[in-house]
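for the writeup, i need someone to sanity check this before i put it in the appendix. the sequnce is what the collaborator sent (i think, or maybe the updated version? ugh). structure was predicted straight from it, no edits. if anything looks off just tell me and ill rerun, i have time this weekend
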Amino acid sequence: MKVLLVFALLALIHGSYATLLIKGPTQPVLEGEAVTLECRYSDSEHNISQVRFEVFSKYMQGWRQLYERWCFYSLEIEQTADSLILSIPRVGKFFEGPYRCVSDSENVTAPDNASEPLTFKVQYMGDVILSREGYTSFLGVHQELKVQPGDDVVLRCSASSSEEPSYSWNKDGSEWKLLSSKLTLKKVSAMDEGLYTCMANHSVQSLSKKRTISITVLPEDAAWYESTNGRFILMTLAVAVVLLVFIVSMTVFLCNRAKQTKTCKGPIDDRSQKKPIYKASVESLPSTSGDKEPLV
């Protein structure tokens, strides 16, 4: 009889708790698309007001509650009669999750108070970055590369992406195509001048991006500082000279200030060398009184 009562009590307790469910995308989504997540109980009679969304932080290695203002992104959290809805207006690569629903009800404790985690894949691709081997390694700003005749030019193409892109190079007005992320031009001449485009291809064609750079070969009699590397060296030297002048100026200023402070000091006032003058002492002034009280 007691065994039956225990089983009945356990069944009653188990039946009083409903399972938290989280619903969201089941297929990969594109960067910039809107995504909606939903929390609800398997039993609609339970109160959804004590439920919140959480996301797992890979940086903090822990679960963090989601708010409508999260990491400089604007989210929308709406509560309906039987569900809690999270809307992400523009999803990015940092929104893949995992996410879960958590109840703050006092009657339920971990792990029964949380839903199963939900993770979805975001398809994205960042801007194409060109880099050159040598002094000017980063060409994020320059649209034109000026080189001396006979120089070797090695350019690399890269882009952050949800999957490894396939790269290709082509030259404007030419039919040749290089299936590689690395472009190598040996001993360049005037024939190598032109517009070169790197294409980063994604499996989702709409995410593919490209970057174009102009290569100009200078005349034989051009000064060395007219090239891109030459200008980079000049800028580096200019920054170094300005920094050196600043350090020397500050050193001279501080030394002069220290000297002025030292010369402006008066005589050392050593109070420990002073002795009180007593009337009865040898050092005192003549007096008819015999008291030994100090005058000062």
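The longest strand covers residues 209-217. The chain is about 15% helix and 30% strand.
thx in advance!!
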